[in-house]
Amino acid sequence: MGIITSENILLIGSLLLIVGVVIGKMSYRFGLPLLLVFLLVGIAFGVDGVGIQFEDMHTAQFIGMIALCIILFSGGMGTKISAVRPVLMHGLVLSTVGVLLTAAVTGLFIWWLSGMSWTNIHFSLIASLLLAATMSSTDSASVFGILGSHKVRLSNNLRPMLELESGSNDPMAYMLTILLIEAMTNIGDITTGEIVLQLILQFGVGIAGGYITGRLAVWLVNAYLRLGGRKADSGGDSQQTSAMLSILILGMVFLTFALTTDLAGNGYLAVYILGIVLGNAKLPCRRGILKFMDGMTWLAQIVVFLMLGLLVNPHEMLDVAAVSLLIGIFMIILGRPLSVMLCLLPFRRLPLRAKSFVSWVGLRGAVPIIFATYPVVAGVDGASQIFNIVFFVTLVSLLVQGTTVLTAARKLGLTEGAQDDDDFGVELSDNLPTSLQTITLGDEDIEHSPTLKDMKLPEGTLVMMIRRRGRYIVPNGTRRLQSGDTLLIIREEDA
Questions:
Q1: CATH classification of 434-492, choosing from 3.40.920.10, 3.30.70.1450, 1.10.760.10, 3.40.50.150?
Q2: pTM for the full model?
Q3: Could you report the per-residue pLDDT of 383-414, keeping only the tens digit for each?
């Protein structure tokens, strides 16, 4: 009986997930990024741990590609145009020029290290830039995972700025990685004009493909509802509708990536744009769709980190540990801060402490490690060293920056207290001419309106629920209010 069977694969996979989730919950009190825990669990079960051997870079790249599509799409769906509009230019400059500067500065540093006699790396200038390019994108998902778990709210519109940057900088890093791989594998065959043309196609086709498929997806959602006739109009089976629409949208994600890539565009940029279009459109069963995609995103990230942990051989990383540590420290202390400060220099209204925080939270995550598999698959010289260095630098970034996110935000005075759940988990149909909002009462509110009947609410509004220290209270007119109470209010849009 063979050791590698379907049952054994399921057994090992399930054990990895269960152990990772349990340990991840325990790590919460230490402020460790959850994804770092899964990465360490994968390493523990790998060649130098339990002994599970996984060396298929092609499979790892394919799984990483699928996961990255889901992650980027989910990031796009969470990007509200109204929220990012004030910081649109900030985020776009960071995700484009910032990536280029980070790759250039770090690449030159790696090239300088390669010339030192005491180092064990010997990269050319292009190889050094390639190594830097794979690490040039950030993973703010870990940051928001920590901030979200502690209900921390950031000032100066930092959250939408970082969300926009992290969601849109992966395509730029991908393009740099692919172009530099082509430059290394086709020396003398690629011209400056071809590079410019590829960049135009990658950006142009990527943006157009994402927007067109996004509008198509909105039309398909509405068409799906119309197919059910009167039953669909009256609501039908909402749970089934939500599930089917979620699957439909997931199919559109992969269709968008595949079509855009076939047309020489950037598929990752396209799925991010697709997410933005859908996230800012009127969708039925929005909450159900968002919950489905959130679950898929977490699963994608967890599977990728477990897989990457299995893929690496820790004893091989020891050979480049010293150099990797130097590169990681350089990126944290100089590379990332320098690129951020230069990019945000024109935005003088943004305080220095906010710029400093953006500089500090440039965490590396799964994406750099996924991109590091591309040189291995392409057969680039020194690709195994590139992969091990990227992996080590990612660990350093998650350990150093990931564990100090909350401390940095508080020390810089950028926290604004707890973040509330705006709608108490209540979902209204898009067909209803109503909206939900919350009001948190202070001492001055209680002084003038000690009960609900004393509150002067606008015409067409109604208090649906009261949240008090984690408890939910059904309101009535004589209910006495307390400072800190959060009221869920339903309001007619025309009122």
A1: 3.30.70.1450
A2: 0.81
A3: 899 999 999 999 899 888 888 887 888 888 88
